[in-house]
């Protein structure tokens, strides 16, 4: 058996970590609107900004292209994708209404002890992390949103559904919409209440967080094996999300 050179192994590991870090940094720049939708992405400029070579930059851009955050065009190079149009927004939610209620129903049908533990852990950790109304909390809740829906897709047992949901990258697009509006707040005081509106209408309802309440209903139905309630709760949740976010793209 041929011995593995430890120096090569360590170099490969460092390269992988650097690639992941570069990907995370550029992704953060895009979703927080530092790289604005539709703007050109210059590899040399990013290399200088992030103090790294072009190789991890190119690797990161390829990954971000698969995420739907970057596009590459012949003779034009890389640019950040535009925000969702109204038609794309509604198309995304219609797709979710087709697959996610079914996924929740199937998850309830075949939930395991381990699956229950993962769902409970996700809900508990998110509730504990809630602190105050700011962008970081919105981002944290958006990340929970993505994890929760991905988890339900996984628990459905369908690799096709899980893969289809992941390819939508829907929560990344929703967070970009939020950040785009936040930038407009700085430039236009007439929209100074948008952030407050977003929290009140998307994440809060009286004394509790609306999205968390809805996720809890879905989670409880799955854990209890109530497939009918799981499907109905997920359908209601996505319809509510559609209504709450519609104004940000209209």
TrEMBL record:
PROSITE patterns: HTH_GNTR (PS50949). InterPro entries: GntR_C, TF_FadR/GntR_C, Tscrpt_reg_HTH_GntR, WH-like_DNA-bd_sf, WH_DNA-bd_sf. SUPFAM superfamilies: GntR ligand-binding domain-like (SSF48008), Winged helix' DNA-binding domain (SSF46785). Keywords: DNA-binding, Transcription, Transcription regulation. One of its GO terms (molecular function) is DNA-binding transcription factor activity. Residues 16-83 form the HTH gntR-type domain. It holds the Pfam family GntR. This is Unannotated protein.
